[in-house]
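Cross-check.
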Amino acid sequence: MSTEKLRPLLIVEDDPALQKQLRWAFDGYETLTAGDRESALVQIRRHMPAVVTMDLGLPPDADSVSEGFLLLEQILAHAPDTKVIVLTGQNDRANALRAIGLGAYDFFSKPFEVEMLGLTIDRAYHLYDLQQENMRLQQMQHPDVLSGLVTRDPELLRVCRTIEKVAVTDATVLLLGESGTGKELLARAVHESSSRRRERFVAINCAAIPDNLLESELFGYEKGAFTGAAKTTPGKIETANHGTLMLDEIGDLPHNLQAKLLRFLQERVIERIGGRQEIPIDVRIVCATHQDLRALIKEGRFREDLYYRLAEIVVNIPPLRARQGDAALLAHAFVRRFAAEQKRGSMVLREDAIRAVEAYAWPGNVRELENCIKRAVIMADCNQITREDIGLDEAPSDDVVALDLRQTRDEAEKRVVITALGRVDGNVVKAAELLGVSRPTLYDLMHRFGLK
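Predicted model, tokenized:
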């Protein structure tokens, strides 16, 4: 006798005869039954079934679909990965489409063929398993502090390993990258991976504060130091004592403050404006900028000695257009996130939308992609997001060709594998089908190219 536990299948049906028929037809599962919305929710909470079949017409008013739609929304709110197969009345296409729009997996019109429903149930379980495997793979990509960073790009993964290594030290880190590439996310990861994680992380944008106010924001001031200084106020550096201070857009720091910051970095003491007392500060410094600091040094706009104080560890963050496959992978992740936030049910990117995302250069990087997908999720008319919803035109991108044949072949294979994984949201089975190879072959390629 097999001891393998049967998988739970919830059947929500108020007709006892049909309920019995479905239980008999699907005895390969642990069939759970419910005749109304409340008892169905009890079964959902107790057993968390991966697949649910449900009639839209439920008590107390079986002729209305209001109770059925309410149950559908509650199921997907409580367990959004559940595959719900809706059973509707004959010629009830409008409600079937509405159910799909809310996030139902599929629908069948009564009367239906049990064999066809069985095949759909099997496919729903298979899809559920693939999605769970995909989520497990994604969770294995980064340490907890970098869980917000979605990438398969080898260069950015090297950046992540660098962050892990330097975080346990007190070295000053300089993050270089275009706007929207995730500099603050990495700065927070440095803090959360360090021994200072229980202390404060304080960030200040040097470009967002007027020059005449930036000094008091950084160093603080004593009572009466200037007109309006009604009380002694510590600055950001002092506030971050024992923690981490992020100086964002350090390239915009005024020249007169560069000397004062350099002295602090050398002596690790500050004086508030209007004060005479030296205050010792123990703080980890992380700086970031989208500007070329070496070019600013040549122009006389940035002190060279300050640069070398800040550049103990320099981390270059690649732009999104250079991260192979990441645009599609991030787009999938943002769709899931914003669909949940906006309560749009289960939403997916259509093939033309994915290709448009891959073709676009994303000058605003991840921030631009995030805003674009959020707008598309809000504006899409159905649960499939199209290229028109995203508002992008597909355009070919130029590839740089190397002359080493073996290296070119390896790089091309790696690029195609990463692109395929990004296009199918990290699903190894679908990526193998897309590439026309077996799953073991794809795993071998991923291992060879260092892709998790």
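The radius of gyration is 28 Å. The longest strand covers residues 83-88. Passed to J.P. for a second look.
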